Amino acid sequence: MRATISLYEHTVRRTTLRLQGCSAAKRGVGGIVILDFGQPAYNGHTYGTYLFSGRFAGNKAITHAMFAYAAGYRYCLRRHSKLRITLARGTSNYRPHLPSAYKAGRRWARETIALTRRLRTHHLDSHVSSAAADDVEPAWDRPFHRTRDFFRGYRDARIGHALYNYGSLDGGIGGIWNARQFFFVTSGMRDAQSIPEIYNHAMAREWAELAHIARHRYHRPLRFAGVMTTHTSRNHGMKPRDAHRTLVQALALRIGATAADVPATLTNIRSANY
Fold it and tell me: Which of 1, 74, 94, 145 has the smallest C-beta neighbourhood within 10 Å, fewest atoms?
């Protein structure tokens, strides 16, 4: 399976996002697409994010931008195409200095369902569905509290849409967070699923160890939704198919034949070009 392209977004300009969606359709790839709009933020009036350009974007503006991406994707699909994407509104736990991370999580969920309704109203839901995502990195929130509160806020909104964790384990269990904390944001919380960053063999082994602990301590498998890479022609990083194979092999070595399934849903994230 070919990988989708996920993007670090520098703008919420609708014309730009529409072109991004069109480009994705022309590649002829379906799967999960994460649009990462940057770290959580509050401008004194509304919750949103700081984009990778440094500018603030409110949650509603992000939703409008995502709808533009979805419309561009649908418009540029070939006639009678069966392709589908799950479009996930991405943020991170990087320096989440907010009045309430819990409220930020609830509002992130609220806009996720708002996009679902708009897709349905405009008959785009046969090709695009809505989800949320969070680049969770322990080093960015060492006490864990803000990350936990964001996830709890999302959960308590009860929208029933996936919240994908597309982060890392930063040294593995006990390096910064303990197993219970890791498990909560990868599979323990209702709606949480994992699209782990697999950039090398060490990262795959860390995820395999977490999967082993989840099975034997919490008696539940990790819910994998795919894998994420950041391969470019310049960094020579692990390619998506290689990353998937590496994670599957690490799980088999650590757990055996009963290891959790890892869907061959691949996404490669890069900075959006303008």
Answer: 145
Task: Give the C-alpha separation, 141 to 199, whole Å.
Answer: 21
Nearest alpha-carbon partner for 98 in 39, 143, 144, 181: 39
What pTM was computed for the model?
Answer: 0.96
What one-letter code names the amino acid at 262? V
CA distance 25 to 124: 13
- Residue-averaged pLDDT of the chain: 95
Centroid of chain to Cα 93: 12
Within 10 Å of residue 194's Cβ, how many Cβ atoms?
Answer: 26
Residues 6 or more apart whose CB falls under 8 angstroms from that of 12 comprise 37, 51, 57, 61, 62, 64, 65
3-state secondary structure the chain: CCCEEEEECCCCCHHHHHHHHHHHHHHCCCEEEEEECCEEEECCCCEEEECCCCCEEEHHHHHHHHHHHHHHHHHHCCCCCCCCEEEEEEEECCCCCCCCHHHHHHHHHHHHHHHHHHHHHCCCCCCEEEEEEEECCHHHCCCCHHHHHHHHHHHHCCCCCCEEECCCCCCCCCCCCCHHHHHHHHHHCCCEEECCECCCHHHHHHHHHHHHHHHHHCCCCCCECCEEECCCCCCCCCCHHHHHHHHHHHHHHHCCCCCCCCCCCEEEEEECCC
For residue range 207-251, list pLDDT tens digits in order.
999 999 999 999 999 999 999 999 887 777 899 999 999 999 999
Give, to the nearest 10 degrees, the angle between helix 145-156 and helix 101-121: 40
Q: Are 111 and 161 in contact (CB under 8 A)?
A: no
Measured distance CA(165)–CA(156) in Å, rounded:
17
Sequence length of the chain is: 274
